Amino acid sequence: MDPGVILTLSISITYIAGVIIFAPLLKKLKRKGYVGKDMYKLGHPPVPEMGGMGIAFAFLAGILFLMSIGEMPFSIYPALFVLLFYFIFGLLDDLLGIGGDEDVSHDKMMKILVPLFFAFPLTQYVSTSIHVSSYTLQLGVIYLLIILPFYIMVCANLVNMFSYYNGQSAGTTLIILAFASLKLYRSGDIEILYLIFPFLGANLAFLSYNLQPAGVFPGDSGDLFMGAMIGIVAILGNMEVFIFIALIPLSLNFLMVAYWFLRDRRKTKTKFGDVRPDGTIDAPNQHTLMWFFPYHLSLTEKQTTFIMYFLVLLSTLLAWVIC
User: Fold this and answer.
1) Which terminus, N or C, of the chain has the lesser number of Cβ atoms within 10 Å?
2) pLDDT at site 99
C-alpha cells in the first residue's frame, strides 16, 4: 500500500478514535473528581484533568492499525516503549503528585532523574552523531549515555512547564511536529512518520477539546507524553539541532523561571495569576514568558496563547532555515 495512503489513514483513525474516546472519558474523570480549576476563566470553573489518557489510547489505536496491516517499521517499537514509560510516569505524577506543590527536594530530583532511564531502549537503534549544517559531530558513548537521555527528558519537561494556558502545550507540539514531519518527508526519512502521524491525529483530537474554553487539561501524563514525542523525533530523525532551535521559546521560559526562583529564593512563589472582570489576565509579575505579555498589555488567555503559538512558529521557521 502507498505510504501516503497509510499515513493518511493512521492520522484519520487516531483523530476519530480520540473524538470518540474523549466524550465518555471526560464525563468519567469529572464524576470521579479528577478536575482542576480553570484559573483564567471567571469563577474558575472545574475542568477534567489527565487528558493524556485520551491522547495515549487514541494514539495506540493508530499504532494497532499499522501493526494489523504489517506496516509498522521495526525501528519504531523501541520508541513506543519510551513513550509508554513517560506516559505512565506522568500519570503517576497526576495521581500521586511526584514533585508536586510541596517543596520536597527528593521528589523534585526524582522527577528529573528517573526519566533519564526511560530513553535506554533507543540506544541500540540511534545514530551517535549530531549533524550541524554540513558538519557531523561523532559523539559515540557520550551521545548514548548522556545526550540521548537528557535530550528527551529536557524536551518532556520543557513542554510540561510550557503548559499554562488552554491549548498551549498541544498547539506548540502540533506546530513543531508538523514542520518536523515536512522536513523528514523532504529528506526521504519516512519511517519515523509512522510514529508521528498517529500521534498528530491523537493530538488534534485532544486539541479540539483543550482549546479555549478548555473541556480538558492534559495533566502531566499528556504534557510529558507530548514532550517525549518531540524529543524522540529529534533523536530518531537526527534533528537535534532543528528541535533545539524550535524549542527556543520554551527554553527561554525555563530560564526566566529559573532566574526568578534563584533571585527570590526566600519569597513565596505564586503559581497562577488571575482574571479581571473584562476577561483579561491579571499577571502577578513578568518573570515567566507566559506572564510577560499580559503583564505589559491587556490580553485575554486566548490572545496570549496565540502569541505563544506565534513565537513557537517563528522559532520553528528559523530552525527550518538554519537546518
Assistant:
1) N
2) 57
Task: Report the alpha-carbon distance of residue 252 to residue 158 in Å, rounded.
Answer: 10
Q: Over pLDDT 70: what percentage of the chain?
A: 96
Which region, left, alpha or beta, applies to residue 140 given φ > 0 means left and ψ of -120 to 50 means alpha?
Answer: left
Q: Does residue 121 belong to any structural domain of this protein?
A: yes
pTM of the model: 0.93
Q: At CA 189, angle to CA 73 and CA 127, rounded to 5?
A: 80
Q: DSSP letter string over 169-194?
A: HHHHHHHHHHHHHHHHHHHT--TTHH
* Res. 96: pLDDT tops 90: no
Quick: pLDDT tens for 198-209. Answer: 999 999 999 999
R_g over Cα of the chain: 19
* Domains identified in the chain, total number: 1
Instruction: Let me know if residue 77 belongs to a domain.
Output: yes
Tell me if 290 sits within 8 A of 164, measured CB to CB. yes
Backbone angles phi, psi at 282, to 5 degrees: -100, 85
Find the mean pLDDT for residues 107-114.
Answer: 77
Q: pLDDT tens digits, residue range 176-231?
A: 999 999 999 998 888 999 999 999 999 999 999 999 888 999 999 999 999 999 99
Residue 228 lies in a domain: yes
Q: What type of residue is 71? A: E
Report the C-alpha gap between 319 and 297 in whole angstroms.
29
Residues 14/202, Cβ–Cβ less than 8 Å: yes
Return the sign of the alpha-carbon dihedral for residues 256, 257, 263, 264.
Answer: positive
Q: What is the pLDDT of residues 159-178, one digit of tens each?
A: 999 999 999 999 999 999 99
Does the residue 285 lie in any domain?
no
Helix, strand, coil % over all residues of the chain, rounded to 5: 65, 5, 25
Length of the chain in terms of residues written: 323
Contact by Cβ (8 Å): 206, 19: no
Q: How far apart (Å, rounded) are the C-alpha atoms in residues 305 and 274? A: 15
- Spatial separation of the C-alpha atoms in residues 77 and 122, rounded to whole Å: 9
Domain interval for residue 128: 3-265+297-322
Taking residue 234's Cβ as centre, other Cβ atoms within 10 Å add up to 22
